[in-house]
Amino acid sequence: MVTSHDVARLAGVSQPTVSRALRDSPKVSVLTRQRVREAATALGYVPSDTGRALSVGRTHRVGLLVTDLANQFYTHTIAPMHHALESLGYQLVLLTEEGDSDRVADRLLSTSLDGALLATTATDSLLPVRLRDRGLPFVYFNRRATTIEADSVEVEARSGMRELTERILDLGHTRVGAVLGPVNASTASNRELVLRERLALRGLELPDELAHRGDFDFETGFSGARRLLELDEPPTVIVCANDVVAYGAFNAARSLGRDVPGEVSIVGFDDLPETRWPLLQITTVAFDLEAMARRGAQLLVDRMRAGADEPYRHEWFPSHLVERATLGPVPVR
């Protein structure tokens, strides 16, 4: 196996000069850099990322930490985040959050990352505390914990949820059901809060019998919607915690032979690309997910370069209603 020492011998320089030349260090003359590169090419030498990381104390690798790899939200997040980081000279490493906070922190640190984007952080998670204690820079993406402050990029859900709820009520719906997200997810609690507030302003409420709570997944949407639709007095509209939950609710309605939106309306949140499919055409709340992913990457790189003393930044992406085929007027029964 060819090493940098072989390149040094062929180029007639020292091994440290080879390392500096291949990093385009200004401390090495242009002619020497050219000679080293020609020697490296002749020998088929490829610099080791690990070796370079050890020499400079950085790996230029950052982690994206999620809990559910099957969730389409993260599928559509990875590509723009990867491209943004690549343009800034970093590689994206995808990691799953399994185990307690200490174990996850150990795994992040053992992977030799320069920083991390925390995408599925629970409000009561201790992981951010563990990472701060161990000096690993991180940014909250989409969700945040209340345990410790850090840079964050999130959706401003109030405007979109307000539009959605007002439209539902203007269409005559008074028996509103919901398939809600986890109580310890900031995204779920923010959306639920606005829904309940807007209902209350019209003298309505979301009773326990019309609410189902679970994870942000298809199975929660399917089981929750089936339970609501099999009530003696089912809701005329089901507000879902996100689009993936709405996919499950849509399929549950179809499995029971219920027409959407003729017998029940179904709405989501996120405006994932699949919601635009002609087969689905789901009414939802939209925001610029790709821009948010790119901005999260930039915030993390900024934090890694600035250090811990700079003030934390919190950025919010506006949301708005996108009305499609799954929301209609209250059915006549």
UniProtKB/TrEMBL annotation:
<dbReference type="Pfam" id="PF00356">
    <property type="entry name" value="LacI"/>
</dbReference>
<dbReference type="Pfam" id="PF13377">
    <property type="entry name" value="Peripla_BP_3"/>
</dbReference>
<feature type="domain" description="HTH lacI-type">
    <location>
        <begin position="2"/>
        <end position="56"/>
    </location>
</feature>
<keyword id="KW-0805">Transcription regulation</keyword>
<protein>
    <submittedName>
        <fullName>Transcriptional regulator, LacI family</fullName>
    </submittedName>
</protein>
<dbReference type="GO" id="GO:0000976">
    <property type="term" value="F:transcription cis-regulatory region binding"/>
</dbReference>
<dbReference type="InterPro" id="IPR000843">
    <property type="entry name" value="HTH_LacI"/>
</dbReference>
<dbReference type="InterPro" id="IPR046335">
    <property type="entry name" value="LacI/GalR-like_sensor"/>
</dbReference>
<keyword id="KW-0804">Transcription</keyword>
<dbReference type="GO" id="GO:0003700">
    <property type="term" value="F:DNA-binding transcription factor activity"/>
</dbReference>
<dbReference type="InterPro" id="IPR028082">
    <property type="entry name" value="Peripla_BP_I"/>
</dbReference>
<keyword id="KW-0238">DNA-binding</keyword>
<dbReference type="InterPro" id="IPR010982">
    <property type="entry name" value="Lambda_DNA-bd_dom_sf"/>
</dbReference>
